[in-house]
Design brief:
Phosphatase 2c, domain 1, alpha+beta, six-stranded antiparallel sheet, globular, five-stranded antiparallel sheet, 278 residues
Length: 278
Amino acid sequence: MSTTAPNTPLSLEIAARTDPGRLRSLNEDSIATVGELGLLVLSDGMGGYQSGDVASHITTQVIVEGLTRALKDKTHQDGGVADVLEEVVKRANRAIYLEGESRAQREHTSREQAMGSTLALLLFKNNHVTLAHIGDSRIYRLRANRLELLTHDHSLLQEQIDQGILSAEAAATSHNRHLVTRGLGLQAEVDVALDVCEALPGDLYLLCSDGLNDMVDNADIELVLNSLQANLPLAASQLVMIANDNGGEDNISVILAKVGTQTSAAKKHGFFGWLFGH
């Protein structure tokens, strides 16, 4: 239940970190934040595909440019935010797919070896947040000191868990945990998982690539966020450090966004001064 009047302007504080991890020299993750739009985008170039770094950068670039134009368009109606978001994500999918086709032809490889990426996206507008998700990058929310996973992995492992073939404990050590069943650029069309929820003061959102949640369990993520939510840059750095200390087997990317009120933002020194509410 909301403790804030529906039209109370809310503020957003953002911190982001990305790191190649301990075992890889190339960082195939791509992150982008546009504070004035309330837009956070995270993409992970998928392992086992060529040019994952190119795919992830196409994802963030196309989405940021497309949504920047769409949301600044005075003719855009607020009620169509999810539709506009889905259209832009599908545009990114098409761009990656066509680039993969072109590379496969140039390099004489099969289409199955082409590029792909995941997506975790948040768009804050009118005291609500729209989520878009594809693949196994994740979105969490800390509310009232409790961590909740808001996305459902599009992966072979998650399907096996859902079907009761595999337990969550066994899945944690499976060699198949990086096999995704849905990704940007793998097919000419893609289904985008979309959701909309109310943004409440005190909410803390986390977007991450699997390089974080594969190395750090949810209980430890919750502990870090509860302990350091007053210092988001430190919290983001701490999460990356723990993932690396636990092995750092993949690239690690983290975006944190904390919702506050206009009053609380004004009181906080150095607060990222973007407001959303009308």
